[in-house]
Each structure stands twice: as C-alpha cells, then as structure tokens.
C-alpha cells in the first residue's frame, strides 16, 4: 500500500462528496477499418494492463487516509454492437468503484464485416490526457508484435518522490501564491454557475487558427485569448484554471495521473500578443511550483471539481497510430457528459487548425449563448495584434467583415443586406476580400459564397456555418 498522490487525494475527496458525476471518466475510441485481428487486439489490451499496474489499482480509505491498493483487474471484453455511439455512451456513463476497482475497462466491438472499434474508459485517478497518447502507442506496438522497454518507475514510487519534492518546495510555493491572490469569478454572458460540483454537460466545438508569434507558444497565445475574452466581459484580472503536467523524466512512458490544476491570473494590457508575452513570463515562474497542490499552498481552498469558473486544457494532437493491415482513427476527445466548471475549454492543436471543444452545463445556458462566446473568442484568436480594451461586440465578426468590404470597395458605410455587385464589386474585388479575410480573420470563404449570397449578412452566415461549429 502507498499513500495516494496529491492529485488522487483531491479527486478522491470530490468523489466521496458525491460531486464528481462522470467528470473524471476519460473515454477514448479507436475506429478500425479493414481486416482487424480482434484476438491480437485483445491480447494487446491485456499486455497494456500487465505493463501499467496502475490500471489495476484502486484508492481506498485506511485510517482516514486515501491509499492506493490493489484493485480488480480491468476487463478486456470482446462483443458486437450495431450502434457505436450508444456503446460509447453506455461505457462512458457506467460508474466506477473507486475503492475496489476496476478503474479502467477495454471493450473491443465488432461493428461490421471489416469494421471494429475499441472503446476504452478509465477513471482520472489512474489516467490523464498524456496517458491517452501512451495507451494508443503501446496498443499499436503490442498489436504489431513489437515490444516496449521496461518502465523505469512505478506510479507508487512517483507519488512517494512527489511528496518529498512538495515538502521541500512548500514554503516557497506559499510565498509565491500569497502574492498572487486569484481574481473574482467572471460573469459569462448567458451562462450561470451551478455550484462547486460537476454538472450534466453539453458541448459546442469550433475550429480556429493561431498565428505563430516569436517567443510565445501556441498554448500561451490561446490562454491569452481566453483571458482577453474574460477581460472584455468585464473582469479586470481574470483567473483561468489550467491543467499542468507534473511528469518527471522517469515517468514519461507511464500511464497514470500526472496533472495539477493551478489558477492563472493576469491583468490584460496592450494587445492580445502582449498578454501572451506576459503569460510567457508568469508561467515560467509558476512552473517552478507546478507539482505543489494549490490547496496545500493556500489556506481556505474548498474541495471542488475546478479552481475557477473557466478552465482550460491544451494538447497537441499526435498522428493516428499504425495498426498493421488496418486503418485506425482515434477520437481523442470523446465527451464524458459532465462539466467540471461553468465553462471548460479543451483545445486540441491539429495541423489543420485548433479545435476548441467548449464544455458547459446543459442547464446553465443554451447552445446559442455558447456560440456567441465562441464567436467572440474566435475573433480574438484571429487578431493577436488587436488591443485588449473594448467589448466583444466592438470586434464582432460582422463588423470585421464590414471593415474589409469598406476598405476594398472604398465605401464608408455598407449595410448588412447591400448587394456587393450593386456596390460596384466584381470578381477581382471578391478575391481581394477573400485574401484579407484569410489573413485578418483566419477564415477561408469559397468564391461561390459571394455569388450565391453577395451581402455582408450572407457571407457572415456562411462563415458561422462553416467555421465555428464542427458537428
């Protein structure tokens, strides 16, 4: 037996209080097309279970403390299914027995003659976002008959070492956080808070693009865009909860929970890019204490599923793995049907754009409310050199498109429903507008749109249908 890690302890308490719902369920689906060897995939699942002992653990209470204990071994079952969506939903919503296990489950389902899917669900107590990459890589290697090098450190050993590091750095962490009190809760238009626990969730997804800026990471620019959004909603010093990895070199290949959520507060000034540069500096300071739980360094932090009303996670999408003889497609961001905060932004950086999955309480607002927030955020992301001052309405998509039309056509005022061709526009005018919209707004509008709906209202509607929402 080993005392649970700090991250596990926080989740265990939240589970015991009955506030987690399915917020800590982490599903992943691999879709296979072609002549899959289902027995080989089943054996690969069993090999992963043997390799990563943490999947067979549980967290139980002993003398009032949460302790890692041996739990039931994760099942790896073979089945058939007619409806993959329903199977994923059932497996995702099925509860876990935290104190006895199993805390993970594998289901290999035959969907058709040459169509299979692997539905994997784990509890966050033994799994995190980076574990998804490790799981899929190991599964592919074992399926392909390859071996993996022996793991250098167990999760239990990591937890023991982490306690020592936290003890050594706790005094400095307390001093660091005492000088950085979190801001007030941000009011999001149309969304309301539902308490300190998780709520039934809904999702809205849009695709955006991020400009590469010197000396600033794409994550920092995205986070700066979120802070700017909240600033424009009236918060002078927004606080956003961010998931940070606590992995050390010895556990780079381990499945497990290696995440610490910390609050990031900034007072936006200058441009969005300036906010990103400020965050670049501030985060480097904070990273020194990324392994220290916030509740250990700051008094009075009550158990809750998120440290702030708005939370962010960010990851770069890895290429889909190679399973010999079949085409494998991974859904890395399957929704677990719960939300930990008023609004959680899960950003997945992909070669064809940044996919932002907005998770919100199903009863706290409507899809239209969230779509408006998405549009405001997208406008900020597309304009990193724009000033943080102002309101989202002043920089809305309609006005940005109108400004480009006015520049290209040389007209001071253009109404939403005025016809481009009646205003003197032609084919070359359209190509110039398209080029400026691509550069300034990060959107690609087909030429046909201008011929079918040659108005500002028509073009804006086409953008909203094609870009923000990815169903």
Automatic annotation (TrEMBL):
Gene Ontology annotations of biological process type: amino acid activation for nonribosomal peptide biosynthetic process; lipid biosynthetic process; secondary metabolite biosynthetic process
Recorded GO MF terms: catalytic activity; phosphopantetheine binding
Domain Carrier: start-end pairs: 392-467
Pfam family, one: PP-binding
InterPro entries: ACP-like_sf, CAT-like_dom_sf, Condensation_dom, PKS_PP-bd, PP-bd_ACP, Ppantetheine_attach_site
Keyword Repeat: no
Keywords of the record: Phosphopantetheine, Phosphoprotein
Record-level GO cellular component terms: cytoplasm
Keyword Phosphoprotein: yes
Protein's name in the database: Carrier domain-containing protein
Known cofactor(s): pantetheine 4'-phosphate
Top-level division of the source organism's lineage: Bacteria
